[in-house]
Amino acid sequence: MHNSFVQEWGIDPGKEGTINSATVKYTDFLLATASGKVEGVKGLGKLATPFERTKVAAYTLGAMTPCMRLYSFLGKELQAILGPEGNGHPYKNWIDSYSSESFQASALQTEDLLDKLSVSLTGEELDIIEKLYHQALKLEIEFFLAQPIAQTTLAPLTKGHNPEEDRLVIFSDFDLTCTVVDSSAILAEIAIVTAPKSDVVQPETQIVRMSSADLRNTWGLLSGQYTEEYEQCIESIMPSAKVEFNYEALCKALEQLSDFEKRANSRVIDSEVLKGLNLEDVKRAGERLILQDGCTGFFQKIVKNENLNTNVHVLSYCWCGDLIRSAFSSGMLLPCENL
Question: Could you tell me the Gene Ontology terms of the biological process aspect for this record (predicted)?
Fold first, then answer.
């Protein structure tokens, strides 16, 4: 089966090549287990009695079952993503094989056989099977992590990214996704710090602003109301019990969340707490904004990759594109026109 797959990918299965070390670790682990060499277990090498042979068979299945179940799961998941329009996908036959009913049945049969062989085992021997199962799954994960990635980027599963024909569009949230703190709170703090004192007469030529004390009180009320209504909104849209995925219900929930955000934003605008902010103060605050670990590296890879034809859109409800542009430009992450 695997020979036919690799031939489709232009690889000669008869040609000698370097075996991935992660593959060797897993195959050596299986061979050792099948021959009775199990870590922490003595006296299995001779397999003198039927019971000992049954025990080794159970241990071997304990080491094999994770592979069967994992590939069965991956096949089904990838098949669901691929959909009926995936005929041109290079891994279609691989996905079809591991998502097939026959392979699903084989995985289930392996698990059933393991259950039957385990009936006569002691609690200590069942613990050994559990350890073998965990070790096998760990080696499988290491196998996948060790595979070379030809294109280190997020791309649709259905096809590769051709920069001459395709444009990759990436949307990213800003507040508390890219940033460590909520940027709207930063804008409010700038407004409070730069606001005039209550006993200072404001010149007629300047925009009339609330005093710093009034601003702080107003922002405190707005923040408290936002937190309370946010919790109520989330509680109302989250199902009380586990349910199947429902696209229509998700759309309705997102609409409710959007309506809540619009109301909260309108209250801030109507309150005029951000009225009269100095643009340079906002930009300086953006330059000092702390981004989440990994955010800088992620966007730098996108910007510096000449093989990508990419548009990046950063979303935020903080009402201030200059703050966002300053935050990214300070780290040389993105050209400002992408934000």
Answer: thiamine metabolic process
